[in-house]
Design goal:
The protein is an alpha+beta fold. It is built from 9 helices and 21 strands.
């Protein structure tokens, strides 16, 4: 009896994907754990491997089809099928053989460094990927590299209809999913936002005094995000309800601190997770955030890197936002919004002074988090940021 290939679990709140490319054809021989098909979700591309060796006997979900988690993609039967191994190079001279082998290896390596979306664009437009320079990590070729080479700013396969002064563009899967999830968050959670302001003077001074020594020792710049992650983790320990979530009629308290850090990419917003942030140093946090950010922008995040967050931090300040009301990332119950730093007049000991001020916002699920806890949590974050020495003393 044939073995069914099914759509695997794709991550939290991700229920469907699009079949982007079949790597095998019906009748092909497949090996155990060999990649059969590539799926694209709203956040990542996933390769589905063969559970066992055999022959690909049937393809049920064609390319471009939307499939639900658990749906059947194809079937594998026991036996021997058509080999898909590369044909040997015809030998003429040893020098030619060596040259051909090197060229072949280079092409294989180039193929490996191509994102699924970029490969599809190249095939649709008959572009030789070996002529394209990749802008992704380790030279990975992204869809944007193909579009730039073609002189386009949007995917050729994207439905785009222009009529008069109006233009209709079909939503990408990511944008469509973001739309649905944001609305679901509004419908399912009782969201409320509380605000405060933070004097960033001491953090700015600490960074200025130590940035060269920090970068020389750890190989990474000391940013603001590590201070915010550390401050939130310490505040979550004092107010565990903000780190909890609702499951049916139960409140689930999380005794671990996986902090999601929102990253804006050309495809949309994704939230990779810094796991066990309470156990990481400032340098470790900065390195992890940079790594996840680069992987997010190059489309190389794995599903595991997007799962398991207990609290999220989003920074609209990098785009110039003064104040906003962030939306929680279900099933989490809280999200902290950072904003831009602006020189503002404030009163200190009865005197007006100019200080670098950031407005911060906490959106929380009022079903389980009372206003007292939410406000107290944000005040605690403010206290840590305004006196970062407390982070090192666990006060």
């Amino acid at each position: 009896m044939g073995k069914k290939i099914i759509v695997p679990t794709l991550g939290e709140s991700v229920t469907e994907a699009t079949v982007s490319k079949w790597l095998k054809s019906v009748g092909d021989q497949v090996n155990s754990d060999e990649a059969l098909v590539e799926l694209e979700t709203d956040k990542v591309s996933v390769s589905v491997p063969a559970p066992e060796a055999g022959v690909l006997s049937e393809i049920i979900a064609k390319e471009g089809t939307s499939v639900k988690v658990g749906a059947t993609l194809a079937s594998i039967e026991p036996g021997t099928g058509r080999s898909t191994a590369s044909k040997p190079t015809v030998m003429k001279e040893n020098t030619n053989v060596t040259s051909s082998k090197k060229t072949s290896e280079a092409k294989v390596e180039k193929e490996f460094l191509v994102s699924p979306a970029a490969r599809r664009v190249a095939e649709e437009n008959k572009i030789d990927i070996n002529t394209i320079s990749g802008s992704g990590k380790d030279g990975r070729i992204l869809k944007e590299d193909l579009l730039e080479a073609m002189g386009q700013s949007f995917p050729p396969s994207q439905s785009r209809v222009s009529k008069g002064e109006e233009e209709r563009v079909k939503m990408t899967r990511l944008r469509s999913t973001i739309s649905k999830r944001l609305k679901e968050a509004q419908n399912s959670a009782a969201m409320l936002t509380t605000f405060n302001e933070v004097d960033m003077s001491r953090i700015i001074e600490m960074r200025a005094d130590n940035k060269f020594r920090f970068e020389k020792r750890y190989g990474v710049k000391l940013g603001f995000m590590s201070f915010f992650v550390k401050s939130c983790v310490n505040a979550l320990k004092s107010f565990p309800i903000v780190n909890a979530e609702v499951q049916n009629d139960e409140i689930v308290y999380k005794n671990y601190y996986n902090i999601g850090v929102a990253v804006g990419t050309e495809k949309g917003l994704v939230v990779p997770v810094v796991r066990d942030a309470d156990q990481l140093s400032f340098a470790d946090i900065e390195k992890k955030i940079i790594e996840l950010g680069e992987r997010a922008k190059s489309g190389q995040l794995s599903i595991e890197e997007l799962q398991g967050g207990t609290f999220t931090i989003t920074n609209g300040g990098i785009y110039g936002s003064m104040l906003s009301t962030p939306i929680i990332n279900p099933p989490q119950s809280g999200v902290l919004g950072m904003h831009n730093i602006v020189q503002r007049p404030i009163v200190i000991d009865g005197q007006i002074a100019i200080r670098p001020i950031m407005y911060v916002a906490l959106t929380y699920d009022h079903r389980i988090i009372d206003g007292r806890d939410a406000v107290s949590f944000l005040v605690r974050v403010k206290e840590y940021l305004e006196d970062p020495r407390r982070l090192f003393l666990n006060l």
